[in-house]
Description:
about 35% helix; globular
Amino acid sequence: MSHGHRHTTGMTRRELLQVGYSGLVGMGLPALLANQAQAAETTARRARSVILIFLTGAPSQLDMFDLKPDAPESVRGTFRPIATRAVGVQICEHLPRLAARADKFAIVRSMTHSLPSHEHATHMVLSGIDTMPPGSTHMASRHDWPCYASGLNYVRPRRDGFPSGVMLPTYLNNGYGFSGQNAGFLGARHDPWQVREDPNGPNFRVENLNLPVGLSIRDLDNRRRLLAQVDQQRAGLDRARAVGDYTSQQQQAFSMLTTSEIGRAFAIDREPAAVRDRYGRHMFGQSLLLARRLVEAGVPIVQANMGTMNNWDTHNSNFTQLKDRLLPPLDQGVAALLDDLETRGLLDETLIVMVGEFGRTPQLGGNVGTPSYVPDGRDHWAGVFFAVFAGAGVRGGQVIGSSDRIAAYPAASPYYPSNLGATIYRVLGVDPRTAIADRLNRPMHLNEGEVIAPLFSGATN
Length: 461
């Protein structure tokens, strides 16, 4: 797909000519760029929910959605591209179901940032920032930037017992939690709900949503009143923010326990066996099915981590792992999700985003001369990676942006985590420039990016 020649400004020749002519009438480049941003904001459709499919560990752009068949073998590897339902768009041969549905999604091939570290990159991608906030490290803390569900909850807090966000089926940690999974400096009262169990497990149940055996709703109400009395006595002793956060979490837990809709959404065993089979009887598929059940019930943001921590970190046996372990269940699960949402009339009001924290090295074996070099693997690479979008007004069947001849860096239209975040917030009806304050009451914007406009306009770039 041709995107036109782009200059160092990132604009096409036609856009530059427009700047020239508009300059005669006093418009100029700044005004044109402002108009483009405004157009993106008006074309992005308001959606009820977002399903963020997070490929934790960072998948290879070269071996999934940005193959380079004409590159040297040491770059292109062993996978071959196949045609898709979208004219001129090719993806990996081991994603046949997604290839058959390529008219439903758009591929951004020019995502980029500068930190090829799992912890830092996860923080950036899951919260929509391009630089680390002051005080944050590689470990989760209350200095971190809030994840999308937390940002949404801060702007539009829920009062109905439903969480603003659910993360499943695992909490990403390496002996310490990864940043980007909670509310960070906004405080624990805005944290999303964390599910740490495999929905494919035979005895899957979310403990906090099931009353202990022998405990009735009346018993629970009695405990709530007793707890309120204790909290009232304690209030005069300690009014620290942490206490307020803890009390808020208690109230949310009580609300969720007694809200039947959310409990029913988690009861995945009530789903027809044929539907569960279509998604696949594995963690990937059942997590995506549970995500569909949650957004259908009214949860606005669901993040489904495709595997446990760093699951896609293919430092060795890259092609074997992708072919045998990773791509088949992903292909099955995501294809089923697209079909299911469309059948139920939910695709137009649900934005699907599939992304990892970065990409993999163009050169097979990784960074030669480093301890991580393995001949049949790919190392960390933040220079360029992919993101896939569907639903909520996204124009499917298109490729946005491009990488260079070896998929090392963007060749046109680079997009950053902040652009990803702005797109998610705008689709949910949240102004990315919403004013927030950190724990020291310093003012800042929720997000500093611009919407990825071609997703909704379909304009080539």
